[in-house]
Design brief:
single chain, MetI-like fold, 2 domains, 14 helices, 74% helix
Length: 271
């Protein structure tokens, strides 16, 4: 009884910590700056879309949204391609080599991204990759590859090895086994990992802030800073832009909800 009470209380606090900020942002998108400051928790007097019209008319989100979509798409696609190949190889190498490779990739999880800021910046300046979407894609791949390999390897290891052995007896090579057996069976895991990576790449602010200065190369999170001035901050426009920037992630989650839930629960029940 005490355990259930504590568990329910913690879940309630966790839910409120998510619902309250989200509610403030949603309601703030339909308010004026004065109402946001004076009555942050109150409902809007009228649910008008003036802030959305201002945001669309200004055209300030079109190019950044396109840049964010390009960076997120290619980062996720390339990372999943490399991670699935590496994870398949590691899961099939039931030897010291496979374990060593897995440990080496796992070490990347222990290194905070902020530690690499200065080396990455100097390297990208030397390579001429600043103010480049390609540079952002490469950074995202390097940072998210370890966690992707870590997650997908765990799912590949749970697949029945008998299927691979039978396919090998029938003459299928490693590439055929990977393409025709491993990938289809691990689609939920790869889908869940892809959603996870998309959220990371879409919301990334640190590296665009460090590597991008040109207006036509800015991503959406970086553009949100422009609404905060030295003497004036347009909270209503910030909330509106945040709401618009969140829509692709919500749509992606709804579209791939089954794959995401299946990926999280896969392997939880044996037999």
């Amino acid at each position: 009884m005490i355990y259930r009470t504590i568990k329910g209380s913690l879940l309630t606090v966790f839910a409120l910590a998510i619902i309250i900020p989200c509610s403030i942002v949603i309601m703030g998108a339909f308010k004026t700056d004065l109402k946001i400051i004076s009555e942050p928790l109150a409902l809007p007097e009228s649910w008008n879309v003036d802030n959305f019209k201002r945001l669309i008319d200004s055209g300030s989100v079109y190019t950044p949204a396109k840049n964010s979509l390009i960076v997120a798409f290619f980062s996720v696609f390339i990372t999943l391609s490399l991670a699935s190949l590496a994870a398949f190889a590691i899961s099939r190498l039931i030897t010291v080599t496979g374990k060593v490779l897995f440990v080496l990739f796992s070490v990347g999880l222990a290194i905070p991204g902020q530690v690499n800021i200065i080396p990455i910046y100097l390297l990208f300046v030397d390579l001429g990759l600043t103010n480049s979407l390609t540079g952002l894609v490469l950074v995202n791949i390097a940072l998210t590859l370890p966690i992707s390999i870590f997650i997908i390897t765990a799912f590949f290891r749970d697949l029945p090895k008998e299927m691979f052995e039978v396919a090998g007896i029938d003459g299928a090579g490693p590439w055929r086994i990977y393409r025709s057996i491993a990938l289809p069976l691990s689609r939920p895991a790869i889908g869940a990992t892809g959603i996870f990576l998309f959220v990371i790449c879409w919301n990334d602010l640190l590296y665009p802030l460090m590597l991008i200065t040109r207006e036509d190369k800015k991503t959406l999170p970086l553009t949100l800073i422009d609404f905060r001035g030295e003497y004036l901050t347009e909270y209503s426009m910030i909330y509106t832009a945040i709401l618009v920037a969140s829509l692709p992630m919500v749509i992606m989650y709804i579209a791939f909800q089954r794959s995401f839930i299946a990926g999280l629960t896969q392997g939880a029940v044996k037999g």
